[in-house]
Amino acid sequence: MKHSKTLIISGIVLLLNALPSMAQDAARESHKGDRLLKCLSIVGLSDAQKADIKRVLLTEKPVMQALAATLKTDAAALKAELDRNPADACAAGAALLKVHADKGAIQAERLRVKSSVEAVLTTDQKAKLAGCLEAHQPPVAAAAEAEDEEAD
Fold it and tell me: Does residue 49 contact residue 121 with C-beta atoms inside 8 Å?
């Protein structure tokens, strides 16, 4: 019994430590679409390209909104689980896995949208877009990418 209590407490501590980084990730993720639009404004789009990109973004908007709503619901469920007294470590872990899966689905959809947008661009415009996105990357994300590159 003492062992399982220690395990539950350890799991709760790990989950509580993960929450601040999850909040930072969510804040960083919410601004990625803004960066894309800002960077698209400087690549010199033609009227036809603007119309094509607008169509892509309008088509994907409901999908992204649904994914964001799912993430919000699952994050609230995780918070509720962690606020329970005593917290169920298995339920909290399952809720945390749902939140991570939601974030992965959002990232995959965001990459799909970016690919659809890039399909409309010329090679020069793609280079300008990539440079702009890299230059406007938040410091936290830039530091995380630098750590990933060092690990490789």
Answer: yes
Q: Which of 44-83 are b and which e, b meaning 16 or more Cβ less than 10 Å from the residue's Cβ?
A: ebeeebeebbeebbeebeeeeeebbebbeebbebbeebbe
Residue 133 CB-density burial (10 A; 0-12 exposed, 13-18 middle, 19+ buried): middle
Are residues 60 and 109 in contact, defined by beta-carbon separation less than 8 angstroms?
Answer: yes
Closest-CA residue to 22 (of 95, 111, 112): 95
Amino acid at 64: M
Give 52-70 pLDDT, tens digit per residue: 988 998 999 999 999 999 9
Which pTM does this prediction carry?
0.65
The length of the chain, given as a count of residues: 152
